[in-house]
Amino acid sequence: MTPNVIERPATVLAGKRVVGKPKQLGKLVPQAWKELRGRLSGIPGVVDASRQYGFLVAGDHKLALGRLATYIGVEVTAEAEIPDDLRRHELPAGRYAEFEYVGSFLAKEFGAFYPSVFGALEENGLKHAAEYGWVELYEDASHDWEDKTKATNRLRVLFPLTEE
Prior knowledge:
Layout: E1 4-8, E2 11-20, H1 22-37, E3 51-55, E4 68-76, E5 87-91, E6 94-102, H2 108-123, E7 135-139, E8 154-160
Antiparallel strand pairs: 1-6, 2-4, 2-5, 3-4, 3-7, 6-8, 7-8
């Protein structure tokens, strides 16, 4: 697997925290998205409500008892005031390794996706700027939270890179 290395502008995200065991997140994240989506018109500075961002925050994703914390949110303008119950996450401008998966999220190929992504970073001499976590990008037209078996489901994963 070879990543697409792209340049991205600085991005500010606002996200709702979701906590659970890995197998639970497949249900909890879509529920959190539905809840957040219903509030987007009241959140100032939302850039594009059809683009959903999942993100991990370094030092905040591995919890006790095998639980993980992740966030589901949207891009907001830099000056947006984020509601207190959401997390603001700033990603720097710069180079990102982009990986894409298209297909059923229940397929065995999806189970191998993340392990192969981490291997591909190393194989291609790319160093992840881990302090910024990583970002998953879901676009409404190509992602169906309700039907994980759809062959057209699309996920883009972006890893900020260090310049070392």
